[in-house]
Fold:
Amino acid sequence: MKSRKYELPEEAALFGFVLFKFVLSYILVNNVYELHRDEFLHLDQANHLAAGFTSVPPLTSLFSLVIKFLGNGVFWVKFFPALFGALTMVFAWLIVDKLNGRLYAKCLIAVAYICSAYIRLNILYQPNSFDVLAWTAMFYYLISYFENNKPDHLYYLAIWTALGFLNKYNVLFLILGLLPAILLTSKRDIFKNKHLYFAIAIALLIISPNIIWQIKHHFPVISHMKELAATQLVNVKRSDFFKEQLLFFINDVFILLAAFIGFTIYKPFRKHLWVVQTFIFTLVIFSYFKAKSYYALGLYPVVLAFGSVYLTEIMGKRYVFRSMLMLFIIGSFIYIVPIMMPVYTPEGIIANRKRYERVDALRWEDGKNHDLPQDYADMQGWKELAQIVDSAYSRINDKSAVVIRTDNYGQAGAINYYSKYKNINAVSYNADYLYWFKMDRPIKDLILIREADEEDPERKKEQPFFNKITRIGEIRTPYAREKGAAVFLLEGAKIDVNSRLKSEIEKEKHDH
Structure:
């Protein structure tokens, strides 16, 4: 009598991977790290809802509003990028299913996704996680449409494209890559389908509030991109861009190679040549503009899906090879996870400095190496800053007549998030905070936060305008990017502070 063969239900396997993905997003972050400077800005946008912001489109602010309703706790801040990452993995799983991939191929894409740069991406509450999700969903619905020509897939495609646009304008680069890729294949017939244009109309309708906002505010996205190019992208090397693409997926390299080989010689993949062409065109466009390497991360889930299917076909029922591949991916991930994730304390990173230097993990946007990876340094010292500001704030009698002005959005957002005082409303001339000043009452006192190298000049500059200036303290957290930033309390204004601030704000807006 033959023994009955049992197979793990696919739904149970997928649920297990999703649950595991969530768990990793929490346990691979050392408790010594606080929220990231960018996360504070995005969370604060929930308090200033609008159709657009100078830094990002408006979708993130809606997620922040949900987080606020849920209590604004760190758990929920971490939950949403983990959720977007898990949904991306689900779409990659569905792409494998569209390609008639078997259970092993689906498990392989799940493992490949988890054991890659996405695990790092999905721990930060930034638009990047949803960006990758939107790109993967767009690929899924395009593949679905080309498979059966059902118009509903075009409408889903349009909705995800619109959501991607409202999340991050980065999706425009994918569209620029898709257009020539599709035009070069027989799939160009899509442009003859009237439903495509109805779908485009729906997408334009969805994004129209943000477009109108951009027009009314003289396209701040252009100024933001110019500033980004001048201060950050200028330090990006094209060679590093391509090198980092490989480093992101170093333990998935066999799957990526299998995908590109499959597109070349595997007959069932020939009808999907537009996918690899889109990958190439988009990478070239990113490289031309000297984009940051992680901007291209949305391209890889679909490629990994194709690679998983082709590798499964090659290996067949050779279970030894299947097991060895899984062990390689998981084993190499375990080896590199201390570099990819903030599991070490700052002291632990410094003790293993050479490991980080070998992969350029200590190089910041200024092009120089530092003690910690930049993201980790941006997750230090914020609670200390908020406590110092609270100490200054507690000394003020009329709290309705004070402005807390910081040097950058990270400082302002961290104070607003960690302060024990509700509605403390720290602001800055930086990013969206430039538009969030509240000066509906005469200002008598100022709390100023200044970088370490700006401390003395700023104090002398302000001395004639206030009766008393007190240095409250400074950030002393050893490896914080903001180390040395000082907090000053300026009491008893001798001038019309409101008029002065309004003049400075208008100048900053004009400059931007």
Summary: Strands lie at 402-406, 426-428, 445-450, 466-474, 486-493. Confidence is low (pLDDT under 50) at residues 1-6. The first helix runs from residue 10 to 27. The two ends are 79 Å apart (CA to CA).
